[in-house]
Amino acid sequence: MTEEVKTPTNFIRQIIDADLAAGKNNGKVATRFPPEPNGYLHIGHAKSICLNFGIALDYHGSCNLRFDDTNPHKENLEFVESIKKDVEWLGFTWTALYYASDYFDRLYQFAIDLIKQGKAYVDDLNAEEIRQYRGTLTEAGKNSPYRDRSVEENLDLFQRMQAGEFEDGSRVLRAKIDMASPNINLRDPTIYRIRRGAVHHQTGTEWSIYPMYDYTHCISDALEGITHSLCTLEFEDHRPLYDWFLDQLDVPCHPQQIEFSRLNLEYTVMSKRKLTELVSEGHVDGWDDPRMPTIAGMRRRGYTPASLREFARRIGITKADNTVEMGVLEDCIREDLNESAPRRMAVLNPLKVVLSNYPEGRSEQLSAPNHPQKPELGERELSFSRELYIDETDFMEDPPKGFKRLVPGGEVRLRNAYVIRCDEVIKDGHGKVIELRCSYDADTLGKNPEGRKVKGVIHWVEAGHAIEAEVRLYDRLFSVASPDKGGDYRDLLNPESLRSLSICYLEPALAEAEPGQQFQFEREGYFCLDEMHVHGQKPVYNRTVTLRDTWGRAEQKG
Ligand code: ATP
Ligand code: MG
Q1: Most buried in the list 187, 237, 396, 485, measured by CB within 10 Å?
Q2: Is 28 a known active-site residue?
Q3: Quick one: pLDDT band at residue 18, thresholds 50, 70, 90?
Q4: The model's pTM
Q5: Which pLDDT value is given to residue 549?
Q6: Is the domain of 198 the same as that of 251?
Q7: What residue numbers bound the domain in which 350 lies?
């Protein structure tokens, strides 16, 4: 996947093509990615990032990163920094970086403007009363008794809301639209609420009132000259409100809001509330736990930026709600790493092998290609001597039919080395196999043995130079495909989502691995050195993905 395939067209690109053909927006295309810094980004955000930044790249337009930071209680700088890092890591560069809070002064002026036009009023109803007055889908709402306050009174109260005179929840500023509208979003939506004493990560304690998302978003888009404001389908019903605010106010342009469907992925959850709970309740080990669908978690797991961009390309952009199979995501990283990851040998469940006919004290250097299909990636050295480790699952005393690996009296090829034969099985007091005494055929390095066929090939590591490591095997975070549907999603967590193998042996070439670097452990899967690894400490490897899709099936090896 060194060369990325061109992004296929979609209905949003077709709208943009038509706008350009019609000469709209002076031929400009300007998008933005507007995360709220109240959590880490997840794979669903990656879809939106690839869409917005991808369009800017392909149309030689611009794409801003804008923090939608209107709720100081839930947001913080850790989230701001993680979002910047993740967007850059995905391979994108924003044209400009903004915070909605950059516009707090102008949003305040626009609110005064609405009040002066008689299109906004201060309401003294509390949240519960506002909900009761709002009506339902089948029933019109009722006007608030405060709806017809004079402009002067509204201006006075609004300024005193900002001056900190009133308690949280005691008053709000509302747009005056239509309490009988069939679209509930237009029934006098709240545009400002009081958050006295909140400390905002950008503006500190300057503001006692904070603007609501719907009001802030459209004005921010207009102030930045956004041409196409792309958001997810749940905002479709908000579009009339988006347009209403811009129609009332003297803004530089009127961006077009277009909605597309959210990404849902099987075996995981994507709502920020739930991801926050998984972290705060300790169900996972932080936002970057490799089982999380966050970009930080997937990076730590070993996913590459190219694999996530390819995933976004494959799922495409539509208006149809659907849930994507985990296999689609896993194929993207498998295909990428199959091309790029150097091959190494690692024994995850060690079983000692002693070669009785290999002279004690002797050792030799063998070599093996870093990538069987890519000689240009060179070779690495492997040491070989009398004592080795193989994986205990590659030996069976009582094998089923068709078992091609090592059995008592049988032969197997050690990958990149010799053919060995198992002569003796040594057990502990409980009957557990603890060592195999074998002999090697010195005449089988790089060639077939004379007069007989040896079918099986297994991986191994020489004991004397092996690196001891911990290997973490990850599985689906949830044990059902749709943990969001019915009941408490926390009851559906997969208890086997992490299995840690504390004593594994790696071939010596892995001593040079860099934190975050990916490898194929031959016959096992793709793994990366944990990005938190500190040189000199026992390494931890994270399994990114198995070699084949093994979910729900017995693992096939051999
Ligand atoms: P929450 O989970 O609390 O609803 P959010 O997912 O809406 O939060 P934001 O930070 O507001 O989080 O999202 C930033 C942008 O990413 C928005 O434009 C949003 O539409 C988009 N986005 C969020 N989730 C997805 C998803 N699953 N698929 C596609 N786009 C998404
Ligand atoms: Mg949101």
Answers
A1: 187
A2: no
A3: very high
A4: 0.95
A5: 77
A6: no
A7: 344-462
